[in-house]
Amino acid sequence: MATVLYLLAAIGVISVAVLLWRAFAPERVGAAPRPETAKAPDDDPEFLRRLAEQQWEERRRQQRRSERSDPDNENPSGS
User: Fold this and answer.
1) CB within 8 A of 15, min separation 6: which ones?
2) What pLDDT, on the 0 to 100 scale, is given for residue 71?
């Protein structure tokens, strides 16, 4: 009975060692490089720049609409 437990423990240790090796081993020589993973939107500076531009344009459109819809307000800047 004890030998069976030792055998199962050895199989478990070997399995964990193999999984750790595959996960953290250096790249294999001659292996194809892994494809670059996609960036999350909040990690992509180009996406953030475009988003800021879109938000700015939307605010400008809303400001223009509100200026056109208020005929009494001839000088919206207050000067």
Assistant:
1) none
2) 64
